[in-house]
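Weekly structure sync, notes
Attendees: PL (lead), two postdocs, one rotation student
Agenda item 3: pending single-chain targets
PL asked that the sequence for the first pending target be pasted directly into the notes so everyone works from the same version. It is reproduced below exactly as submitted, 283 residues in total.
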Amino acid sequence: MKNGKTNSQAPPAPSDEQMMEKTTHGWLRPYLIVLDEMFLKRWDYWLRTVEAGVVLDEPIPPIEWSGGGHQEPRKNLTACVDFGFYRLSRQSFPLFVEWLLYGFGDPAVQEMPRQIASDVNAFWYKIFNLGLFLKYPYDYLGEYASDLYGRGRNNPTAYFPTPMHVSVLMVKMLFSEEDRKTASVCDPCVGSGRLLMAASNYSLNLCGVDIDANILKVCKANMWMFVPWCMVRPEIKGLEPVVPFQRPEAPTLQPIQQTTPEVQKKLLEYGEQMNLFAGIGKR
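Predicted structure, written out during the meeting:
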């Protein structure tokens, strides 16, 4: 109050350094849960399942996966990565994905990547619109990665994602209309997670492995946004939290895990043990 008049000046905007202090591990998850309630309602469904400790007797909130996505979230993602490109060059996109995982509170990314300067963090904090991604669900991160990798030496792990509409069709062919929420779905070449995203309309038992560590982070970011039962997985009656196959003798793996020689060996040994390769001729 000055001279009997209210001082209506807005408080000064926080500095880049103050924004860095504000973006602590998991800062983005509360926004994710609130926005999900507006558009998808999957976090509410899963948190009630976790609270009950059993699979709920109600359908999984379905997602209508857009075959080609929407331009608004695509533009938003491009704006974020383009700004970081001037500081981070080709590492802008993978670091942006790590920034998302850090914001979601992913246990594998406990600290802000040191390469992300305070001005880049501040820009991403102000510009990134999570609501657009939930309003128009699609694999925007995987699509961007595919365009970035392209062909040749920039794509050493041969990442070529299956079109989303094909993933949806494949899953529909495998699942009937009956309740299959406890059915196991394992994608051994999970990529950005499109098959699991499509299968999430039917099952809560999803897992995958991949040889590409960067693409696996893209997959995990997608799971945080669209499939919370892949990322927050306490013990639930009727579900196996970390086993990709329903049988108890299956090898124990994390739901979303990078392929290593040890993982490959476990999967091959299990496949031979369960006669999964019968009928496949030797080449």
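Discussion points:
- The chain is about 45% helix and 5% strand.
- Strands lie at 184-187, 205-210, 256-258.
Action: rotation student to compare against the earlier draft before next sync.
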